[in-house]
Specification:
339 residues; alpha/beta; Nucleotidyltransferase, domain 5; Hexokinase, domain 1; 2 domains; 6-stranded mixed sheet; 5-stranded mixed sheet; 12 helices; 14 strands; 37% helix
Length: 339
């Protein structure tokens, strides 16, 4: 029986699964998660994963957090260069396909159940079942993709819009841009709307005197392996959280809402905006009362169009793995059919 190895390859973690045509993309025969920085290459991770059991996989599809050019990809936040031909040779695969990680998320959306989403209420929102869809995912970086209806199904299109120039939406964000320009030659949306972006916002608020940083929290932050997670967890879970944590959270959501609105207008996403990534499920209960929706809608005379677009937060952390598996199993079917 031919099997598929599929993966969601991120700057922080790599998730792999072994899939069969019989089980489908929601039911891996085996899966595992690995800390990406602990390995020299994708091949090293896959070798450890396949050593756990059999090596029956003959196809590989990997969603990678970076731009894909043909058979090669360079991860944006991890020093890996992935070559599909080399992966095939190393793992004895008949074929390896690389796609962007946001493409993988997009492929996975239709596999999800209703409980896999948090629906952000918009009074006028009406889903257009054949309208374009947009996906934005703040995590280690900021990914974006979109989907268009071709008359029979959705087609997925990658994007590197997270690296477009950051455009502030208010005076404080304009000050943030000036602050970050001293550090970066080019300030992108990823610099303010990702895990590293959360840390950048926090440092701006502290260094520019907008908020005090309590000494006790500064010590915790200094010793933390994941500063963004600590800042957000403190903001949403502690009753007497430092003001700077709450302000960082609000500024992050303001920026995210702004760029999500930009993306929705860019592709006319009447089929919905989907927010993925590892950050949003941690703070999902704080979105409704945050600046997110205000900045999403703040597009002048086009605000009414955005008010009709459904917004969904993806809660299932395996959506990209399932999406890569869905595409891989479709390719396997075509291969077996000689297409």
């Amino acid at each position: 029986m031919k099997l598929l190895i599929a993966g969601d390859i991120g700057g922080t973690k790599t998730s792999l699964g072994l899939f069969s045509l019989q089980g489908g993309p929601r039911n891996p025969l085996r899966e595992g998660t690995f800390r990406s920085a602990g390995y020299e290459s994708l091949e090293d991770v896959c070798a450890e994963f396949t050593d756990i059991g059999d090596k029956a996989a003959r196809f590989g599809v990997f969603g990678v957090a970076g731009p894909v050019s043909g058979t090669k990809a360079k991860l944006t936040n991890l020093p890996w260069i992935i070559d599909a031909d080399r992966v095939s040779s190393t793992l004895s695969l008949d074929k390896t396909v690389l796609i962007n990680d946001l493409e993988a998320i997009a492929w996975g959306i239709d596999l999800l159940e209703e409980e896999d989403f948090f629906r952000l209420s918009q009074p006028g929102a009406v889903n257009n079942p054949q309208g374009a869809r947009a996906v934005i995912a703040p995590g280690t970086g900021l990914g974006q993709a979109f989907m268009t209806w071709d008359g029979s199904r959705y087609r997925v299109h990658p994007s590197e819009g997270g690296h477009a120039s950051f455009a502030p939406g208010n005076e404080r964000e304009a000050a943030l841009l000036l602050y970050l320009r001293k550090r970066f030659a080019h300030v992108s949306w990823e610099h303010v709307c990702s895990g590293s972006g959360i840390a950048n916002i926090y440092e701006f608020l502290r260094d520019e005197g907008h908020c005090e940083e309590p000494g006790r929290f500064a010590d915790k932050l200094k010793n933390s392996e994941d500063r963004a997670a600590l800042i957000l967890t403190t903001a949403v879970n502690e009753d007497n959280a430092p003001e700077i944590c709450g302000e960082t959270l609000n500024m992050f959501l303001s920026v995210l809402g702004n760029q999500a609105g930009n993306l929705a207008l860019t592709v006319m996403a009447t089929g919905g905006i989907y927010i993925g990534g590892g950050i949003m499920p941690r703070i999902v209960n704080h979105i409704a009362g945050s600046p997110f929706l205000k900045t999403f809608l703040n597009k002048g005379r086009f605000s009414s169009i955005l008010a009709d677009i459904p917004i969904s937060v993806i809660l299932n952390p395996k959506v990209a793995l399932m999406g890569a598996a869905r595409l891989g199993l479709e390719l396997m079917k075509k291969s077996q059919a000689g297409i």
